[in-house]
Design brief:
The protein contains 17 helices and no strands. The mean pLDDT is 94. The relative contact order is 0.04. Helix 9 runs antiparallel to helix 10. Helices cover 79% and strands 0% of the residues.
């Protein structure tokens, strides 16, 4: 059995390994510490962070719940637990955790932003915007909060305001590919397909493997009647993500518009193979077969 000083040293090494990005080593050290001292908060905290970041949210929530029990006055612990609960899609519980974090530290901008994200998942868009606004009030250069605010405004069909949110996010973080992509979606909904294509191009330039942006670009090109270019965009999306059912469907639609029903049917078949529940693919395939 290791001594207390040895346990303390192992915990210190775990924290250092985590900070250095050596997660596997940090996890091994944490588990050694916890086998000797199950209530070591630093080991629980580090292991909770590792399991959350490696997509083991159930284990992360259990570990971080123990941290909260040991340190109920820690705003960071409540925020981290909220993140694990949100990853488990327990959005109401996540909001409650963020609320506790904010009650302890009212200017905790990350907790306000994370609360906004959970409220967005609950489709409480006005409340989400209020949370994003609080995050931005405490940290005006918070790119993720401006992006989240834009997403909530887009859901509320306030498209010009959504674009302004994306623009603020991009001004702070010029490499924000997701903001360019969602900006393109808002522009397309405003019937500005050329501007949408330009925004998608920026997203793809920043993130060449961004399959969703490639697919969305194809949709905007279809709006412009540039069907061959649209198909090329869908092909790029499918090359990145072969099981991308929506891209196969939209590709089929473009081929149908080009009066190539056999090729369209082949695309719809690929969509159905990727997602047997894709009702739109069956419907479009039936129309093409009828033709």
């Amino acid at each position: 059995m290791p001594t207390q000083s040895e346990i303390t040293e192992l915990a210190r090494q775990a924290v250092a390994a985590y900070a250095a990005g050596a997660w596997a080593e940090a996890e091994k050290l944490c588990r050694s510490v916890l086998s000797a001292q199950a209530d070591c908060v630093s080991a629980l905290d580090v292991l909770g962070a590792i399991t959350a970041q490696t997509r083991r949210p159930k284990e992360a929530a259990e570990l971080l719940g123990r941290v909260v029990a040991a340190q109920p006055g820690s705003a960071a612990a409540h925020n981290n637990l909220g993140n694990a609960l949100r990853a488990m899609r327990q959005f109401a519980a996540a909001v409650a955790s963020y609320d506790r974090a904010i009650a302890i530290k009212p200017d905790f901008s990350a907790a306000h932003n994370n609360r906004g994200n959970a409220l967005h998942e609950l489709e409480q868009y006005d409340a989400a915007i209020e949370s994003y606004d609080r995050a931005i009030a405490f940290r005006p250069d918070y790119a993720q909060a401006n992006y989240g605010r834009g997403n909530a405004l887009k859901e509320l069909r306030q498209l010009d305001a959504a674009i302004a949110g994306y623009d603020r996010a991009i001004a702070v973080r010029p490499d924000y590919a997701e903001a360019y992509n969602n900006r393109g979606a808002a522009l397309r909904e405003l019937n500005q397909p050329e501007n949408a294509v330009a925004s998608y191009d920026q997203a793809i330039a920043l993130k060449p493997d961004f399959a969703v942006a490639c697919c969305n670009r194809g949709n905007a090109l279809q709006d412009l009647g540039q069907l061959d270019a649209a198909i090329a965009s869908y092909d790029r999306a499918i090359a990145i993500k072969p099981d991308y059912a929506e891209a196969h469907i939209f590709r089929g639609d473009a081929l149908w518009a080009l009066k190539q029903p056999q090729a369209a049917i082949a695309s719809y078949d690929c969509a159905v193979a990727a997602n047997p529940d894709a009702a739109v693919a069956y419907y479009s395939r039936g129309i093409a077969l009828q033709e």
